[in-house]
Specification:
There is one protein chain. It contains twelve helices and 24 strands. The protein is of the alpha+beta class. Among the domains are: 3-98, Rossmann fold; 123-190, Dna Ligase, domain 1, CATH 3.30.1490.20. The strands form six sheets. Strands 1, 2, 3, 4, 5, 10, 11, 16 and 17 form a nine-stranded mixed β-sheet that branches. It has a five-stranded antiparallel β-sheet with strand order 12-15-18-23-20. The longest helix has 21 residues, at 244-264. The model has no long low-confidence stretch (mean pLDDT 96).
């Protein structure tokens, strides 16, 4: 099967790496991909939001299936295009419709959906520029810290947690007055939940589903979870506290009601549901939905999926996912993200990368922000390389990963050395 993966990060390289266990190199394509994906498939230049170019590329390369990595094309309705365009409608697309993508694209939509289908989440209300004073009054009913979320996508910067009412009031005004543009034309204010987080990934054909390996990522740039938020500095799977008892609660209280809601709302949904959860004294609450796999969690969980990813995708496309065999390893996996100096703020690109990868390394090295420049691979982003490993426990797997990290070099390389400190 000829498969196109849309995106250019470590997530897309990891998806392609798993697909490559079933498909030949000449059947795997990436748009635009990176220096790593070029080693397992064929890169197609282009922008993930240029749907005309994507259509032309699918036709020119006889693509039979498209897997969408990032959220923006999904929120913009790429699934709907493929379903309605005469030239594309026979190509399977893994991802939800534009309506389904609102679970990630609109915080207000997601919170209203959770409230309607009795899915546990933080108390909240939504406000606009016409209701700033009402928003401030609502905050007075909450205990600090205060959580403010821009309704729409804001490049990972739209969630703000502030310790005092005064700070939160000022931030509310700034957000509703255009701090994040259209994304913060509405702002969700919600109560702060204290606990430990994890990511639950569900693959669904709209009715049937598989729960994939659970993971925990580390968002802060600094050790001990300090400093600025990033796209993710690493991940570990499975998560010790997400045991059988906890996951049973997640299935009954979150996964099944979410799928029921999708069906009740007649939402066309064939893809991933990423459920960001927090365990509050052993009880699961939903922080947010995403409508694609997480990054860097994907680079960890792909090592634990033993079933054919292509077969799972076919099950989604054919709406018989319940008939597809699914197995996952009981081993532990982890990924360590190597980033450019200065990330997540200003950083330089174009730094030469050298690899001394062990041929018998029990893991994988995934490219994120890299590109081929003549005969040299160079840095091309904030998050550059994801080093993933598998083993019997967290200390063992992290030791393996960090040993491999030492064999990859580029000017300004930075990574967290404390992953798993809280597990």
């Amino acid at each position: 099967m000829r498969i196109l993966v849309i995106g250019s990060g470590g997530r897309e390289h990891a998806i392609g790496w798993k697909i490559a266990q079933d498909e030949k190199r000449e059947n795997i394509f990436f748009l635009p991909g990176n220096a790593g994906t070029a080693q397992i498939g064929q890169n197609i230049d282009g922008d993930v939001m240029d749907f005309v170019h994507i259509k032309e590329s699918c036709i020119a390369n006889n693509i039979e299936m498209v897997v969408v990595g990032p959220e923006n094309p999904l929120c913009a309705g790429i699934y709907d295009l493929f379903k309605t365009d005469e030239a594309l409608k026979n190509i399977a697309l893994i991802g939800p419709s534009r309506e389904g993508a609102q679970l990630e694209g609109s915080k207000d939509f997601a919170k209203a959906f959770m409230a309607k289908y009795d899915i546990p989440t933080a108390q909240y209300q939504t406000f606009t520029s016409d209701s700033i004073e009402e928003g401030k009054a609502f905050m007075k009913t909450l205990a600090p810290p205060y959580v403010l979320k821009a309704d729409g996508p804001a490049a990972g910067k739209g969630v703000v947690i502030l310790d005092t009412y005064e700070q939160a009031s000022q931030e509310l005004e700034e957000m509703l007055n255009g701090k994040f543009g259209e994304a913060s034309s509405k702002v969700v204010i919600e109560e702060f939940l204290s606990g430990i987080e994890c990511s639950v990934f569900v693959l669904t054909d709209g009715k049937n589903y598989k729960i994939l390996p659970v993971a925990k990522d580390y968002k802060r740039i600094g050790e001990g979870d300090t400093g600025l938020n990033t796209g993710g500095m690493g991940a570990i799977s499975p998560v010790p506290f997400a045991d059988e008892v906890f996951m049973s609660k997640v299935k009954e209280r979150v996964v099944l009601p979410t799928l029921h809601g999708i069906e009740q709302e007649n939402i066309d949904y064939k893809g991933f549901i990423f459920i960001g959860l927090i365990s509050v004294k052993g009880e699961p609450f939903v922080i947010e939905y995403n409508v694609r796999l997480g990054d860097p969690e994907t680079e960890a969980i792909m090592l634990r999926i033993e079933s054919s990813l292509v077969d799972l995708f076919k099950g989604v496309a054919n709406q018989n996912l319940d008939e597809v065999d699914y197995k996952e390893s009981k081993q532990t996996s982890a990924t360590v993200m190597l980033v450019s100096q200065g990330y997540p703020e200003k950083y330089e690109k174009g730094k030469a990368i050298t690899f001394e990868t062990d041929k018998d390394y029990d893991g994988a090295v995934f490219h994120a922000g890299t590109k081929q420049q003549d005969d040299q691979i160079v840095t091309n982003g904030g998050r550059v390389i994801s080093v993933s490993a598998k083993g019997d426990n967290i200390p063992e797997v992290l030791k393996k990963a960090y040993q491999q990290v030492d064999k990859i070099s580029f000017e300004g390389k930075f990574y967290r050395k404390d992953l798993g400190f809280d597990l």
